[in-house]
Design goal:
One of its GO terms (biological process) is cell division. InterPro entries: cREC_REC. Residues 2-86 form the Cyclic-phosphate processing Receiver domain. This is Cell division protein FtsJ. By secondary structure, the protein is an alpha/beta fold. It has one domain (2-114): Response regulator (Rossmann fold), CATH 3.40.50.2300. Helix content is 42%, strand content 17%. β3 (34-39), α2 (51-61) and β4 form a beta-alpha-beta unit. The longest helix has 14 residues, at 75-88. The radius of gyration is 13 Å and the shape is globular. The chain starts with a strand and ends with a helix. The relative contact order is 0.19.
Length: 115
């Protein structure tokens, strides 16, 4: 089981696998069981996908992680992704309308040091 961080620019938090594009994120969702997924919305000017496209594919293919965070700085993008996920998420999936806390990031980084 992995933690997955989708962002074209930001540094990947310790203990997470990094996807720099929507396409890469979907490949990792298809190939791995994902515990925590953290999504960006805007994925660069040359990207064919944005965070909404990833969410739409995630829903269509049933690639739900256990927990989702939205760390994007795009307020409109965050709202769009949140609404789509909220409307379609399976019971038991935890959805957050914002980024991970420093405390959670610290726990994950510490656990990564132990492995």
């Amino acid at each position: 089981m992995i933690h997955l961080y989708l962002d074209d620019y930001r540094r990947c938090p310790k203990g997470f696998a990094l996807a720099r594009s929507g396409e890469e994120c979907l490949i990792m969702l298809r190939e791995s069981e994902v515990d925590i997924l953290s999504l960006d919305y805007e994925l660069g000017f040359d990207s064919e996908m944005c965070g909404r496209d990833v969410v739409t594919a995630l829903i269509r293919e049933g690639l739900y992680p256990r927990e989702v965070y939205l760390h994007t700085s795009s307020l409109a993008g965050k709202q769009e992704m949140y609404q789509l996920l909220y409307e379609h998420k399976p019971e038991g999936m935890i959805l957050h309308n914002g980024p991970m806390s420093d405390e959670l990031l610290g726990r994950i980084a510490k656990a990564a040091d132990l492995t």
